[in-house]
């Protein structure tokens, strides 16, 4: 049985048969069980782990965390070369790629990596999102 990959922008006049956010919208970690195998999704989160095992032939494993859980991302060597700065230096990333499930483990095979760390800095600026004043914190 083959599963159909949804279009990136569905016709707004038709009912949406796919019950999850699609790129460019980000999918929370706790909703990664909704899309079918191979679906193109976008996730975002804080980088909590980067691994580049010597035996992995240039593959980098990145773990992102959002408010609902963690997301495992696989970055192949060729893609790493294209998005190296974001993969190495990013504190918060937005990743678009294909969903892969194997042995009850879900991964995103990265196709595009974007460093969105500047959004973290906005949270600390007076008058920024949430009106947080870092000088007023206890």
Describe this structure in words.
The protein has a five-stranded mixed β-barrel with strand order 1-2-3-5-4. A hairpin with an 8-residue loop joins strand 1 and strand 2. The chain is globular and about 45 Å long. It has helices at residues 77-82, 84-89, 118-124, and strands at residues 40-51, 60-66, 69-75, 92-102, 105-115. The model has no long low-confidence stretch (mean pLDDT 83). It is built from three helices and five strands, in the order βββααββα. It is mainly beta and 138 residues long.
What's the layout of helices and strands?
Blueprint (H helix, E strand, L loop, with lengths): L39 E12 L8 E7 L2 E7 L1 H6 L1 H6 L2 E11 L2 E11 L2 H7 L14
Parallel strand pairs: 3-5
Antiparallel strand pairs: 1-2, 1-4, 2-3, 4-5
Descriptive labels:
5-stranded mixed barrel; 138 residues; mainly beta; 5 strands
């Amino acid at each position: 049985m083959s599963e159909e990959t949804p279009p990136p922008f569905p016709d707004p006049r038709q009912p949406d048969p796919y019950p999850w956010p699609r790129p460019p919208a980000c999918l929370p970690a706790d909703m990664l069980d909704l899309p079918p195998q191979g679906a193109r999704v976008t996730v975002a989160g804080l980088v909590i782990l980067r691994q580049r095992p010597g035996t992995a032939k240039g593959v980098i494993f990145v773990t992102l965390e959002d408010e609902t859980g963690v997301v495992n991302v696989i970055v192949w060597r060729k893609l790493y070369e294209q998005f190296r700065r974001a993969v190495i230096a990013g504190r918060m990333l937005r990743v678009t790629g294909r969903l892969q499930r194997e042995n009850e483990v879900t991964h995103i095979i990265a196709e595009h990596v974007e460093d969105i760390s500047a959004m973290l800095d906005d949270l600390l600026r007076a008058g920024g999102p949430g009106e947080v004043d870092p000088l007023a914190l206890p």
